[in-house]
Records
---
Amino acid sequence: MQYPIGDSHVHPDFSVDAKGSIREYCKRAFDMGLFEITFTTHYEILPERKDRMGFFTIDGLKVPAGPDTVKRYVEEVRAVGEEFFPAGLKVGCGLEVGWDRTLYDRLAKELESFDLDFVIGSIHDVCDTPILEREFSPAFFANHPIDYWIGDYFKRAEEIAESELFDVLGHFDCYKRYGQAAYGEAIKTAHEPYLDNLFDKMKKHRLFLELNTAGIRHGVGEYYPSMAIINAARRAGVRVSALGSDAHNPDQLAFDFENAAQLVHELLPCGPEDEYEQ
Ligand SMILES: [Zn+2]
Ligand SMILES: [Zn+2]
């Protein structure tokens, strides 16, 4: 690493779609010279997602996601974190929550009670369809124009800001992962009419952006979000506050950070002040 950097979006094997124990990830983070690793296992509690992502893996068993599974996960992150802290690796504990406004009351109560350092709000469903799953997404995009769903995507992003439950908006513009094939270049500018409103709300409610490098390993050819969106955000006074790989196995930890780290000057010790504080 050119300078100290942390990975703030990491799925350990508590996530049903991920491999690698908390300890394996920490070992790898330490070996790579990261100064921090923040685990953000999936917390999917929308009833409709129950049969697919609404679980944690605990001791090799699939257990429905809920406060007890989070407690168990937090305990393990904290215990392993204690082992690595003296060696110089800071281990953070967070969640990545799939947003739906019907979850607000439950999340407000639960997130308050969990011992977390960091919470990512992500949009995984639009118009009641999981838009990041190969099983559903390509067919949905092939059968609907962008205008059919893009308004709902941005409405959800605004709700994430207004909820004030989250630290960052996760993998923003990830709809391009499966959307590129259906819509070509049009997907790259679909955000334009919606950005100003969203950035106003993000500023007002102190929600930041993450720069998520998974787009590169997904073959999209750029990060989530695109540099066009990052630059528009910066101009609007919304900054990047986290760099995440969205690793689902330890090999993906800090993926492409040697390039991404150049782009997130806000995260450097000498970077600009938090503009929201002024
Ligand atoms: Zn996600
Ligand atoms: Zn993730």
---
Amino acid sequence: MNTSPSRLVEYGAVIDSNVMVRPPDVTELELEPGHPGEHDVEYVERRKALFALTRRHRLEGLGPPLVAYTPEETRIWRAVSPQLDALHRKYACSMYLAAKDELAITQTEIPQLRTLSARLERETNMHLVPAEGALPYRTFYEYIANRGFPVTQFIRHGSHPEFTPEPDMIHDCLGHVPPLMNPDYAELLTLIGKAAATTPHGDQVLALKRFSWFSIEFGLIEERSETKVFGAGILSSTGEIPHSLFSKDATRRPFVTDTVIATDYDPSQMQKDFFIAPSFTFLRRELEALVRRFGIPVL
Ligand SMILES: [Fe+2]
């Protein structure tokens, strides 16, 4: 089994070697072979219960359910979040750190998505959609286009707290949620959703996915002459944070849109290409220009 912590991948659709794969609408919990929890009966039952609960809330538009987390789930949160927080304080961008504090995401209690969603709604008119697992890409983008970010409500298996083969609450709450407090970031994300959900052209969806991958998931940003982290896939991995900033096995280049949308990526490995954006406003403008160039009628 690949236990690289970098397999904290994007949420939603999957791109495999430039071929677009549309995950079907999965109606029951499926753990991939080799999943750390696949033989743990209690874990599988818990995941099935959360799958059914969050799927129903999503399909019925009820918003995130309040979840009573178990002592084991809280233990895992308390094992992972302080390690990440120590790295965040040193290497995350200032916008992320301020948002994490404003959202009162602590290292001791698993946050309730319902509370986070209400706060986001007041701040940037974004909200959280409970997601039972990976969604078909168009469904995922349609939620984003409507200012809803699909977020999981389950926690990884406790045998490997630093690793999950699928995005879980630690990835989503400590990676994706805090930046949604920033207006430019919120508009950037919403526009990715609108454009990807609207265009019928696969090559344009692929370009938008790469733009998203190298910003929303694995983006770096320039801040007072320093390179800082804001991508969710980096922020939720104790391995990717130092790797993205310091590894000799990775390149760090300025964010040039034409280069970014021509660069492939492999979600199953530690990333080897990183792009540094000068600001969130820059990213938003670059995306608007790309969407205009593609002729997607969403602006
Ligand atoms: Fe993600």
---
Amino acid sequence: MGIDMDDKIRLAVVGCGNMGASIIRALSKKERYSIIAVDSDEKKLKMLSGEIENLETHLSAKEIENADIVLIAVKPQALDELYPILSELESEIFISIVAGIPMDSLSKNLGRIHKVARFMPNLAAECKKAVTAVCHTGNFLEEELSVVMDIASSIGSVYLIDEKMFNAFTGISGSGIAYALETMHYIALGGVKEGIPYPMALNIVRDTFESAAQLQRHLESEPMSIVTRITSAAGTTIEGIKALEEGGFGNTLMNAVEATSKRSKEIEEKYGR
Ligand SMILES: NC(=O)c1ccc[n+]([C@@H]2O[C@H](COP(=O)([O-])OP(=O)(O)OC[C@H]3O[C@@H](n4cnc5c(N)ncnc54)[C@H](OP(=O)(O)O)[C@@H]3O)[C@@H](O)[C@H]2O)c1
């Protein structure tokens, strides 16, 4: 059947919490989509309808009609209740952003052969700066895949990766964004200890993170070769680097990614049947 590219693409978003709502807000600015927002919580639908003109809303996925694509944005615990409803829909293309649920589990539970794509975004979807991993079942037409990538890129940058890397991706980005924020907080606290008020210290740290990211992007060099340029002999930076090493900074961050990835695998084992 495929998507009729001459018509508006009807996209149903099931679950309008943090992530679903961010995706709806981003796509509502694009002419090519007609969005159906579905959430069991009426308040969330009212809030979105207040922001977006002519938004079609429903309290249950049972009400979805003629959706070209269904994007699943509920918590993993909600899936068991949702699968029988979703499997009755005519839609051929499903996108899931549910953490820890593999594509074969989605396909199996949706009951017939579908085209399934999986996204792993992070919370920066709220400001269209998410970093989103995408994988798919490989049976999409080229133009369908370009729509899937357009949906993912509406909330930020996109990496098409093998599903095997999804748990690790959660460690470095989906959850990893939290570690970046924690690091910002503790550097700012260091500033407080040395006499800079917290709000000012935090702004300075935020801009420093942005300048580090921009510099790395500009030079396309690995971080340590840039660090070497900053670290002069018997200077200030080497003292800080030594303190980081003594505190096990590098090892701690790698452990955080490993722990997240392990938890992501556990969720996969619990809910991804
Ligand atoms: N937040 C992140 O940073 C992040 C990053 C990557 C991936 N994810 C994934 O994205 C998914 C959504 O996360 P979130 O933070 O947006 O969750 P959320 O804020 O809890 O949103 C989920 C929404 O779905 C609604 N819902 C539950 N069951 C439903 C059903 N049967 N039909 C319609 N709506 C239903 C919930 O309503 P109630 O509140 O009334 O239950 C809630 O409004 C999760 O699977 C998560 O793993 C999240």
